[in-house]
Amino acid sequence: MLTIGQLADYAGVTIKAIRHYHERGLLPEPDRDSSGYRRYTAKDAIDLVKIRTLANAGVPLARIKDLLDADPDALTAAIAEIDHNLQDRIEELRRTRDQLAELRGGDRLFVAPEVADHLDDLRELGVSERRIHLERDGWILMQTASPEDAHVWISEKRELMTDPEFRALYLEHDAAYDWSPSDPRLPALADRTRDWFARHHSRSENRPVHNPTIARLAERSQPGASSPAWDRLARLMEG
Fold first, then answer.
1. Cα torsion at 9, 10, 14, 20 (round to 10°)?
2. Do 31 and 22 touch, CB atoms closer than 8 A?
3. How far from chain centre, in Å, is Cα 121?
4. E-assigned strands of 123-202?
5. At a CB cut-off of 8 Å and minimum separation 6, what does 58 contact?
6. Chunked in runs of 10, what are the mean pLDDT values of the chain (239 residues)?
7. Is there a contact between 186 and 118 (Cβ–Cβ < 8 Å)?
């Protein structure tokens, strides 16, 4: 006969684990002897080793009770099912790790590769992180609501960014965010911007938008999407 401490040492588990197995109904709790101690038998030791082996193999405790006395065929089938479930869980964890790796890569977790490349190009050009975040959030909205439109627009945007004059205008617009709305540079910037667009036809300008509501949302409703200077610049360009 064994005490609970001797049983724990024999099976290589803790006393706390044995008590937990008692609570879960996996290992019967023996009566106390005349001295007030619980005494365990060889069968208890065998059952505890089985429980420990199954638990260490990843078998859920809820399944162990059914497997302790299962016949070989039932045990084999149950273990195969548990192994399949573990494989699914491993694959899920791998996907999660892949997503975490992408998250460490920054924008590529949230946007299409060509958009992420575009954002990287903007950083190399010296565009502010504020403007890059605005672009990224706009692309997230657009590519989710209308991937076809987003693909056309990002292709055209990347082509535009190869034009030195357009790049210069883009950088000046970015800088103008922090200007005073009365800054004398704003009318000149508006004129140069209008002139540039008058000389360059946009392939997507007359193309119907599949989801105009999201397009407006992407353009107007992002936090920090405008400033007093940008608002005046927009009015000047419309005038």
1. -150
2. no
3. 24
4. none
5. 82, 86
6. 90 93 91 85 90 86 83 83 85 82 66 90 93 88 82 90 94 95 95 90 55 52 73 88
7. no
